[in-house]
Amino acid sequence: MGILTMNPFWTLSITEYSSHCFNTKSWDGLPQAKGFLIPKLKMGHDCPVCGKKNKWASSLTVHLRTHTGEKPFECTVCNKKFSQRSQLKPHLRIHTGEKPFECKVCNKKFTESASLRVHLRTHTGDKPFECTVCNKRFSEGGDLRKHLRTHTGYKPFECTVCNKKFIESGKLRVHLRTHTGDKPFECTVCNKRFLHGGNLRVHLRTHTGDKPFECTVCNTRFLHGGNLRVHLRTHTGDKPFECTVCNEKFSQGGSLRKHLRAHTEDKRFECAVCSKRFRQISHLKTHLRTHTEGHDLNIQLANGS
């Protein structure tokens, strides 16, 4: 057996067959070798940091950047950096608007072929990634990895301000806005700003009048999916919120909270004229009308604040 040494990281095992004389094709840049067969590649591209095995030296080079943080490929438009050239190419399409990958079912277009493959599962219903704990299935491997943390309790992303931990980096980024006050999503109609893109999308419906959530029983339509869920209880009679004191049940959490004040005798709202106290601010406002009109009546909390 002959050993062809290519570099300090890896070697090729080459077996000579005396009974067969033939020319192999050039393989991965190697010259043709008459009378030699390359049946198996034995390599030693192990990561010196975490021990991960890599098939190629180039793969090891790319992998090592996950440890060093090196990102040598930079976008000339926004200066965002990437660890791989293959990541920069689809990113540039964000700036050019190019979406070369089109769904043949609904004609939706994508900047990356991988995004199209994932999207196609919304049509086929394919969910190839299954949780080994609860058997829940997912269309994307990334979603499964995030889901597994709900079983392990692993929350690797920690807020440096209040130390609250999160399962996903995206949720940490959104949380940080509660500290910075940043509201990056602005309504183009009224300029109101929001922490979450989802909140902006819902808000825009107040301008367009769009109510995409429809009751299948009475056809009433709603802006929010949550409002539809609450409404459906008027048809089903479901009352999931139960008072722990008297066991009375309610269809909405807000109704239960109001009810609980009857047990706690929490009368936080005080009339500035006669000092009479009320559990709800709406009751105080009604009471204020019994006093002479024209006075400057202030609503005060029981603690004087």
Automatic annotation (TrEMBL):
Question: What keywords appear on the UniProt entry?
Answer: DNA-binding, Metal-binding, Nucleus, Repeat, Transcription, Transcription regulation, Zinc, Zinc-finger
GO molecular function terms here?
A: DNA-binding transcription factor activity, RNA polymerase II-specific; RNA polymerase II transcription regulatory region sequence-specific DNA binding; zinc ion binding
For this protein, the record's SUPFAM superfamilies field holds: beta-beta-alpha zinc fingers
Answer whether the UniProt record assigns the keyword Protein transport to this protein: no
C2H2-type domain residues: 45-72, 73-100, 101-128, 129-156, 157-184, 185-212, 213-240, 241-268, 269-296
User: What PROSITE patterns does this protein's entry cite?
Assistant: ZINC_FINGER_C2H2_1, ZINC_FINGER_C2H2_2
Q: Known Gene3D superfamilies for this protein?
A: Classic Zinc Finger
| Any one Pfam family match given in the protein's UniProt record, by short name | zf-C2H2
Q: Does the keyword DNA-binding apply?
A: yes
Q: What does the UniProt entry say about where the protein is found?
A: Nucleus
Q: Which GO terms describe its cellular component?
A: nucleus
Q: Which InterPro entries match?
A: C2H2-ZF_Transcription_Reg, Znf_C2H2_sf, Znf_C2H2_type
UniProt cross-references to SMART domains, sorted A to Z: ZnF_C2H2
Q: Which family does it belong to?
A: Belongs to the krueppel C2H2-type zinc-finger protein family.
In its UniProt entry, what is this protein called?
Gastrula zinc finger protein XlCGF8.2DB-like
Q: What does UniProt list as this organism's lineage?
A: Eukaryota, Metazoa, Ecdysozoa, Arthropoda, Hexapoda
Instruction: Give the encoding gene's name.
Output: LOC117648019
